[in-house]
């Protein structure tokens, strides 16, 4: 059956590339390759810069969180004093910092590596022993008690 709709379809698309079109395609391909190389170089530079920052600031992990809370508690007990900037003892704040570390331990139970578990246990022991010493009425605070 013939189509009698009165419409005629003429295809104007080129099915082959002439020499000029082929050259343009090659130039575009080369330009994209160079852009990809530049982007890759920028990405590598950014990765190196990030690695350098990690070395300068140290790796941030759960152990650094434990150590931060422990340092805060020790400072609040008056055991980390800067002679140029004396800080008054804050035993209530120290107790809160130790309690925060206990909460973190409870919330991470079963999810810590053996090393992380050892660190938090040692820090809590050391902080509790130092807190007992710092809570006793006496003159200057005692030096920190190391874990046996």
How would you explain this protein's 3D organization?
The structure is a single chain. The chain is mostly helical. It folds into two domains: 20-57; 62-135. It is built from four helices and no strands. It has helices at residues 19-57, 62-76, 91-107, 114-135. Helix 2 packs parallel to helix 4 and helix 3 (91-107) runs antiparallel to helix 4.
Topology:
Blueprint: H1 19-57, H2 62-76, H3 91-107, H4 114-135
Helix pairs in contact: 2-3, 2-4, 3-4
Q: How far apart lie the N and C ends? A: 99 Å
Helix content: 55-70%
Major sheet, described briefly? none
Question: Average pLDDT, to the nearest integer?
Answer: 83
- Report the oligomer: single chain
Stretches with pLDDT under 50, minimum 5 residues: none
Shape: elongated
Q: How many alpha or pi helices?
A: 4
β-strand number: 0
Structural class computed from helices and strand pairing? mainly alpha
The ordered H/E elements are HHHH
What Rg is obtained from the alpha carbons, in whole angstroms?
Answer: 34 Å
Overall number of structural domains: 2
Task: Give short descriptive properties of this protein.
single chain, mainly alpha, 0% strand, 2 domains, 4 helices, 63% helix
């Amino acid at each position: 059956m013939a189509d009698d709709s009165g419409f005629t379809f003429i295809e104007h698309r080129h099915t082959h590339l002439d020499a000029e079109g082929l050259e343009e395609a090659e130039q575009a391909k080369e330009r994209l390759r160079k852009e990809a190389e530049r982007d890759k170089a920028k990405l590598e530079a950014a990765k190196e810069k990030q690695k350098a920052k990690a070395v300068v600031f140290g790796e941030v992990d759960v152990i650094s969180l434990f150590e931060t809370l422990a340092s805060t508690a020790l400072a609040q007990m008056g055991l980390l004093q800067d002679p140029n900037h004396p800080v008054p003892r804050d035993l209530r704040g120290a107790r809160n910092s130790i309690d925060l570390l206990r909460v973190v331990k409870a919330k991470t139970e079963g999810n810590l590596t053996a090393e992380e578990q050892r660190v938090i246990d040692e820090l809590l022991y050391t902080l509790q022993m130092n807190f007992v010493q710092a809570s006793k009425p006496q003159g200057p605070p005692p030096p920190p008690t190391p874990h046996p």
